[in-house]
Amino acid sequence: MKSDVNIPSIYPYTEWSIREDEFLIQNNMRNEAVFAVGNGYIGMRGNFEEEYRGPEGTSISGTYLNGFYDSEPIHYPEDAYGYARNTQTMLNVTDTKIIDVLLDGERFNLFTGKILNYRRELHIKRGHLTREVEWESPTGKRISIKVRRIVCLQRKHVAAIHYEVTPVNFDGHVTFESMINGEVTNLGGKDDPRLGAAFAEQALRTEELDAQGTRAWIRHKTKNTGFTLVAAIDHDVLSWEPYNLSVTTEAQKVKMSFQVPAKQGHTVALTKFITYHTSRDIPVKEIMRRANDDMDEAKRTGFPNLETEQQEFLDRFWHRADVQIEGDPALQQGIRFNAFQLLQSAGRDAKTNIGAKGLTGEGYEGHYFWDTEIYVLPFFTYTNPEIGRGLLEYRYSILDKARDRAREMSQNGALYAWRTINGEETSAYYPAGTAQVHINADIIYAVQRYVNATGDEQFLLEKGAEMAFETARFWVDFGYFNPRRNGLFCIDAVTGPDEYTAIVSNNAYTNLMAQENLAFAYNTAIRMQEHFPEQFRLLSQRIDLGVDEIEQWKLAADRMYVPYDEELGITEQHEGFLDKEKWDFANTPKENYPLLLHYHPLVIYRHQVLKQADVVLALFLQSDHFTLAEKIRNYRYYEAITTHDSSLSPCIHSIVAAEIGLVEQAYDYFHQTARMDLDDINQNVKDGLHTAAMAGAWLSIVHGFGGMRDFGGELHFDPVLPEQWTGCGFRISYKGRLIDIHISRDTAAYTLLEGSAMDIVHRASKVSLLPGRTHQVSLLKRLEAAIFDLDGVITDTAELHYLAWKKLADELGIPFDRQVNERLKGVGRMGSLELILQNGGVTVPDEQKKEWAARKNEYYKSMIQTITPDDLLPGILPLLEELKAEGIKMAIASASENAPVVLDKLGVRDYFIAVIDPKALPKGKPEPDIFLAAADQLGIEPGNCVGIEDSSAGITAIKTAQMKAVGIGSGNGLAEADIVLDGTEKLNLAMLRKLFE
């Protein structure tokens, strides 16, 4: 389905910030998510400091701690063994942000008085949220307010707010009422499974609260998990004269009122320091001491120095993670906002991960999914690998829980939970939860990519190998060698990434990823045995690993079954998928998307309709498993039936579209991904940002338009630039090096900024990078190869084919004339016979067809014996000589299996480096396989090839292969060609080169 980029902007386009210039109540909840600040542990929604006094249902006040949760039993009216037993919900914790302001007792309130000036801005280069308001009270008092908020990226437990007030037209008193409020709850999503789940009663129980001097704290305990939380606040006051402090305590609140003398034009300010500590990180007995120590250190440092620390941290981050998009301010803003929010949401303590909504909202209850490994981790692996390692270490920390889950599911090894915080499964809907066992392979895929990109063998030996071995054990036990599939390894009762299809056999994505999981585990075991025997011995002993198990991993990987449809030439999403009825997209109202909110699952499951990329995701992650022709066919088929109801989908389609040459479509999908939250495309940003989609925007740039692939220990790049941009750039961390990549309209420039010399692959060519040096490579297309059809281009054997078919048809009594023959152009032998039989209304078994096709071929072979060099078409021999002299490689892409014989008879066989065997290809023209195979054998990029054809099917094949096309002949069937000539005598090298100008 087509993406929609024609969505109006919400925020002004600025390169390094997100700005709101007018307060509109209808946008408030969305803006609270967009203006969130965090550090991977603490996340604060962009709520105003003042207690919210707007209409009910227009604000979601939230502060979250990564990995801090409570749970309740899941109640099933119809229960079964192995169902998830308890929820886990990231809690909305103690609200420490509150600062109310009173002017001689008159409360500042955006909903009363007059807003004379307003601006809120998230500064993504500096890492803080600011707000500037000029306000006039109902009695005419006017003030200027400036607020700065940070959550410290270098101090896990600390946040701070600096709140300035300047009286504009009065003298008097300004009172800052700073509060710590423990009376907080989570919201719930009644009819939307993507939202959070409210608790029946308050999950945080207040055990103690107190205040001493300018400091106050509350100690809570979670109702069911028994975790302890201490939230604390302390203050500094900027005042020209002494202030008065009064403290009020309630059951779950402490309010500290700082009354400050104020003069017209003089600024007074309150700095509020905030800390959060929990027993998930610190022993209960030490929490108060740690809270006080961190608070003391933050106050000694002071707000200006905390801001300096923040700037220094972000300078280092942006040095490695920034992406530049030249000529497109909307997407430049989007990609930087996304990277910043990823940093703010990712756990960095090896105990936490990154939730589907980060730390910006309660959607999906703060759970961790496969999103981390497939979408988010690559961003960190290739920019800030130390964060990537921490995210993987979290998965290792819950490996025992995964082992427990596998046993509960009657399997060996380990099965990671589909959605979790502490490692236990919390998905109550197993068809779209536990059945997505591909999460095992997703995690190991991320381990493999991390180790490849960093060379971090310590992680592999100490943690990654054990994870790989236990998940490999699971796959061998979960699947089986199916005698009905010639002993191939099959995996049943699974759900792939597409959640609009559930509980199927042999989901292609799952099987391909499991295959890589098994192969990686096997190769790691063999390598450890050879190079790290003692560590392998100890690990094998600890997990009771036998040699026979390791061999089973290899056997299962080697014999993995992946469903494939020969008629369509595509990988089948799962067994039976193509037998289902296609969804009626034409008659589905726009308001009925996402489908999951408007149709019963069984209605969706029985149709060919996708929520998100499934096979298309495999085309990217398992890129070397597919030919380019297969990628084109699979993408074309599945893209047309994908709703993109999941925010994970557009970025993957962007990547694959860029690879197969659909650059405009790739741009559209990238735009949808990069601006998903800033433009609120899915109309649900209020519930939290789309973390995986934000990472997907980076994937689209680097793997899509940058064309980066990391296979075989080498980095490969195949860049392409959308027409809308003048350039783009990004940096990649790889094995201790930092590489800068810049793509312009005409060139790609690679600069090795840090580390020792290395080789990369640009398209098909090796490029050596030296420290501090820039290597430029042209991106301009140029003629390097010419690929010819045979009949009607090199020679005209069409008459011989016609006579051979005519002879067979006459013998069989089937009508056949030149009009029917015209339809056979560019079509292979069996395809031509099918057309002849269809025209005659004849149906016969396949064996009979093969016998008749062979008979026709014998007739044709006897006729071609009469061919001589004189049968070359006009101008062909001089063209071949000219191409050869200029070093232009040549190949034949003919549907005729007799092409080698014909070329020999013509005396031109030696001009052609490759003559493609059509029998070796899955699909003939108009599919691009034969032309792509020719380019591959020549070692030339398809974009640097020209194809020369006389049939519409051939021209379509050439253009689908993203080559220049020359049509020979006349008629509308050749209109798709870049140029059409009425005869071969007009072919020459200069004309072919002109096509590339």
UniProtKB/TrEMBL annotation:
The keyword Glycoprotein does not apply. It holds the Pfam family Glyco_hydro_65C. The active site is at residues 789, 791. It comes from the Bacteria. Its cofactor is Mg(2+). InterPro entries: 6-hairpin_glycosidase_sf (IPR008928), 6hp_glycosidase-like_sf (IPR012341), B-phosphoglucomutase_hydrolase (IPR010976), Beta-PGM (IPR010972), Gal_mutarotase_sf_dom (IPR011013), GH65_N (IPR037018), Glyco_hydro_65_C (IPR005194), Glyco_hydro_65_M (IPR005195). Residues 336-698 form the Glycoside hydrolase family 65 central catalytic domain. The record marks 894, 925 as: Important for catalytic activity and assists the phosphoryl transfer reaction to Asp8 by balancing charge and orienting the reacting groups. CDD domains: HAD_BPGM. GO terms for biological process: carbohydrate metabolic process. Gene3D superfamilies: 1.50.10.10, Glycoside hydrolase, family 65, N-terminal domain (2.70.98.40), HAD superfamily/HAD-like (3.40.50.1000), Maltose phosphorylase, domain 3 (2.60.420.10), Putative phosphatase, domain 2 (1.10.150.240). Mg(2+) binds at residues 789, 791, 949-950. Residues 20-280 form the Glycoside hydrolase family 65 N-terminal domain. Residues 708-768 form the Glycoside hydrolase family 65 C-terminal domain. Keywords: Magnesium, Metal-binding. GO terms for molecular function: beta-phosphoglucomutase activity; carbohydrate binding; glycosyltransferase activity; hydrolase activity, hydrolyzing O-glycosyl compounds; magnesium ion binding. Binds 2 magnesium ions per subunit. Substrate binds at residues 789-791, 805, 824-829, 832, 856, 894-898, 925. Belongs to the HAD-like hydrolase superfamily. CbbY/CbbZ/Gph/YieH family. This is Beta-phosphoglucomutase.
